[in-house]
Amino acid sequence: LRRTVVDVIISRFKMSFRSAFLALIGVVGIIYGSGIVVASGYNPDMIHWWPGSVHRLAGMPILTWGIIWCCVGSFMLGSLFSLPRWDRAQFAVAAALNGCWAALSIQRSVISGEPGAWAPAAIYGGIAIAILIISAWPEPIPEIVTGEVITRAESARDDWEGS
Amino acid sequence: VSWAPYLIPLVSAIVAFAAFYFATQASRSTAASGVHAVDAEAYTRASAIYEDTITNLRADIAALRVELTAARAEIRELRQSNNRMLVELRRLGKQIDDDTGPQTTVL
User: Fold this and answer.
1) Helices first, then strands: H and E counts in chain A
2) Residues in Cβ contact with B56 at an 8 Å cutoff, skipping those fewer than 6 apart
3) Is the previous residue joined to A51 through a cis bond, with omega within 30 degrees of 0?
């Protein structure tokens, strides 16, 4: 089973760079979300990174946001096992969450007036834009190498002449 | 700031819609270009080989048609010859009957 799963992942990485990108962002999202979930179990005064250092964010407990990140990350990771043309929902959800996170950072900066609080917005906004750019790129068309084309033609000719 | 609460859903919705739209367009583009790209040199050489094969096929078909026409003519001549032989055999059989009595050879 392990070999089969690894084979599927490797073949999908080769087959679709869009799926590979979504899977990468999904793994990052799961790791990030698990960090938020862990941080939510501690006193926020002990935490010194955003958003682990806050109780609530946009009206929701920080634990909920951590679970959302993990779920969205898993959903994106699922692109490895679905058809490439079904990845539009995964791109939309991934871009929305990262854009939302950038907006939350900017909002916090504006409301709190804390110096440099907008910095995470550069990271998450950049990721959201990267997702937008990759979502617009079609899969590269595989190019048949010269030798293969010639071999096919010669094979067709030899088949007829041999019959 | 009055606009701050609206920033999050607005940005999320816009970005999500844009990603969905771009991904849909990209999927259509990928599906539309279902043919494999082949470099020009390979295409030219393969095309020459295929054209050569097609020319040989046409020549073979033309030769087969000529052979078929000749074979039909030969069959026609053989049928005519066969018919003439049958007529001659019947005539000879009748002549033998007339000369020797009712015992005849059935042909």
Assistant:
1) 6, 3
2) A157, A160, A161
3) yes
Residue B40 touches chain A, beta carbons under 8 Å: no
- Among the partner residues B4, B49, B53, nearest to A110 by beta-carbon distance: B4
In chain A, whose CA is at the least distance from the CA of B42?
A: A146
Answer for the pair B14, A99: CB distance below 8 angstroms, yes or no.
yes
Name the residue among A87, A96, A103 with its Cα closest to residue A23: A87
CB-CB contact of A113 with B40 (8 Å) = no
- Chain A environment of B38 (Cβ under 8 Å): 143-144, 149
| pLDDT at res. A2 | 64
How many C-alpha atoms does A138 have within 13 Å on its Cβ side?
Answer: 14
Percent of chain B with pLDDT strictly greater than 90? 38
Query: How confident is the model over B83-93, as pLDDT tens digits?
Result: 999 999 999 99
pTM: 0.62
Which residues in chain B are closer than 8 Å to A84, comparing Cβ atoms? Answer: 27, 30
